[in-house]
Write a structure and sequence with these properties.
By secondary structure, the protein is of the alpha/beta class. It folds into 3 domains: 128 residues, Alpha-helical ferredoxin (Fumarate Reductase Iron-sulfur Protein, Chain B, domain 2, Orthogonal Bundle), CATH 1.10.1060; 162 residues, FAD/NAD(P)-binding domain, CATH 3.50.50.60; 152 residues, 3-Layer(bba) Sandwich (FAD/NAD(P)-binding domain). 34% of the residues lie in helices and 16% in strands. It has 19 helices and 16 strands. Strands 3-2-1-4-16 form a 5-stranded parallel beta sheet. Strands 6-14-7-8-9 form a 5-stranded parallel beta sheet. Strands 10, 11, 12 and 13 form a 4-stranded antiparallel beta sheet that branches. Helix 15 links the parallel strand 7 and strand 8. Helix 3 packs across helix 5, helix 6 packs across helix 9 and helix 14 crosses helix 15. The longest helix is centred in the C-terminal third of the chain and has 19 residues. The termini are far apart. Bound molecules: flavin-adenine dinucleotide (FAD) and iron/sulfur cluster.
């Protein structure tokens, strides 16, 4: 039995880095960049945790994973048990361990962060989830009984997957209706293979399926059938998790030129439709030499790193604020820099210039400076008069945000909507103003994070269960 370490000894251990592929190797294709901890690295990192009596990390996690407990189990080499502890509150740990912005959540408030580097909670979460899957030890605890109640979930993104899994565990009959041919939402069509391999996503979706959830793909609620049609088929409670798939544009001159994509279209072509394997797969994508991606979030980072992998000589981020204000995860920015992505900060396009065939060939930009903070709390970018200049580009990807998907509110009268078209809910119960209908994730938040969508899913499932049992009367 190894000797128990003192807090001082634990604090003296430096954080263990995530092993990753070399930049020159990884930009040749779409293979995953991070390699994951080995068991030895995971156990060594777990030793850093102080097992705080009042663990702030748990409060920082939107689904309140028992972080010290699962880390303790890793330290003891009980990896499968550790995975099960996480799965009590998070059905998709291999995904969250890869894409959650831990530096803004659990790791931000870890006590070790005050004096140095926090425990690598995300890397540890990923390790145990991968270990459980690779060992074939995934245990599925089904309800073992049925309530005879039917629930319909619209959208198979992280919010919908979470609601569906939780309701199935409570014995309800759950069907998920998904517009695309594959489940996962943004996880499948947005986030590229080099960050989240499809095989990992498929395994986590399969876990939800094995809980008893039925998936009906290529089914657009509002077109294939309306909410009322589903109600007539016997569904008694509904969850709308249809996301924020409507891309925003800047509305500047030339934005309709050929070669200018929304990030949604660009990433969907490459990730979901496998355009990087064209002509083996049917969908093409334009492989630009000089690609500019407008924006500074995760979507922009994914698009620009995709462009690099598609062979761009210059793959550039054009962002109107400075590096400090970029909303992208720190790891994505680091990886992008290592891969040779150019960053043009305090710069914004004002118009696009086309050739005689209607293809974009250049972009006129203006330089910005930062003024006082705006309503987002970030310093407002202000154009510097007369600083215009032109950049040569042959592909542009616009990643300046998304808006809630409008189809369901358009095809079902009566939903109360917010300023940006988001469905308004009671933030505690996630109940909408329409009988039997709950909503969560990006459709109410208008573009946020995987874990917040999942947090909504858990809360909604709790109240949907009560609703189905007649114990919640809004
Ligand atoms: C490129 C990109 C990268 C991102 N990177 C990160 C990251 O690293 N970390 C992070 O935490 N977050 C990230 N995000 C944000 C995160 O992915 C979203 O906040 C999250 O996926 C929202 O989940 P959701 O379930 O609400 O919606 P979505 O994931 O958008 O899923 C909604 C689903 O509903 C389906 N649907 C829509 N309308 C209908 C209909 N009428 N009928 C049937 N189905 C319908 C859609 O096809 C889709 O599958 C990223 C987003 C993008 C676009
Ligand atoms: S706050 Fe940090 S050190 Fe404390 S229990 Fe959580 S992970 Fe461990």
């Amino acid at each position: 039995m190894p000797k128990e370490l003192s807090p001082k000894e634990r604090m003296a251990i430096p954080r263990h880095k995530m092993p990753e592929r070399e930049p020159l190797e990884r930009i040749k294709g779409f293979i995953e960049v991070n390699l994951g901890y080995t068991p030895e690295l995971a156990m060594a990192e777990a030793q850093r945790c102080l097992q705080c009596k009042k663990p702030l990390c748990v409060e920082g996690c939107p689904v309140n994973i028992d972080i010290p407990f699962f880390i303790k189990l890793i330290e003891q080499g009980e990896f499968i048990e550790a995975a099960r502890v996480i799965k009590r509150t998070n059905a998709l740990p291999a995904i969250c361990g890869r894409v959650c912005p831990q530096e803004q959540q659990c790791e931000k408030v870890c006590v070790l962060a005050k004096r140095g580097e926090p425990v690598a909670i995300g890397h540890l979460e990923r390790f145990v989830a991968d270990f459980e899957r690779e060992q074939g030890e995934v245990k599925v605890e089904t309800a073992g009984f049925t309530t005879g109640k039917k629930a319909a979930v619209i959208g198979a993104g992280p919010a919908g997957l979470t609601v569906a899994g939780e309701l199935a565990k409570k014995g309800h009959e759950v069907a998920v209706f998904e517009a695309l041919h594959a489940e996962g939402g943004v996880l499948t069509y947005g986030i590229p293979e080099f960050r989240l391999p499809n095989s990992v996503l498929e395994a986590e979706v399969d876990y939800v399926r094995r809980l008893g959830v039925e998936f009906i793909t290529n089914f657009v609620v509002g077109k294939s059938a309306t909410l009322d049609d589903l109600r007539a088929e016997g569904y008694q409670a509904f969850f709308i998790g249809s996301g924020a798939g409507l891309p925003n544009f800047m509305g500047i001159e030339g934005e309709n030129l050929n070669g200018i994509y929304s990030a949604n279209e660009y990433l969907t072509r490459v990730n979901l439709m496998r355009a990087y394997l064209f002509p083996e797969y049917d969908t093409p994508v334009i492989r630009g030499k000089h690609v500019a991606v407008i924006g500074g979030g995760n979507t922009a980072m994914d698009a620009v790193r995709t462009a690099k992998r598609l062979g761009a000589e210059r793959a550039m981020i054009v962002y109107r604020r400075s590096r400090e204000e970029m909303p992208a995860r720190v790891e994505e920015v680091k990886h992008a820099e290592e891969e040779g992505i150019e960053f043009h900060f305090l710069t914004a396009p004002v118009r696009y210039l086309g050739d005689q065939h209607g293809w974009v060939k250049a972009m006129e930009c203006i330089r910005m400076e930062l003024g006082p903070p705006d309503e987002s709390g970030r310093r407002r970018p202000v154009p510097i008069e007369g600083s215009n200049f032109t950049m040569e580009v042959d592909v542009v990807v616009v990643a300046v945000g998304v808006s809630p998907n409008p189809l369901i509110p358009r095809t079902h009268a009566g939903f109360k909507l917010g300023r940006r078209g988001e469905i308004v809910v009671d933030m505690n119960t996630l109940y909408t103003n329409v009988e039997g209908v709950f909503a969560g994730g990006d459709i109410i938040l208008g573009g946020s994070t995987v874990i917040l969508a999942m947090g909504d899913g858990r809360r909604a499932a709790h109240y949907m269960d009560l609703y189905l049992k007649g114990e919640f009367k809004p």
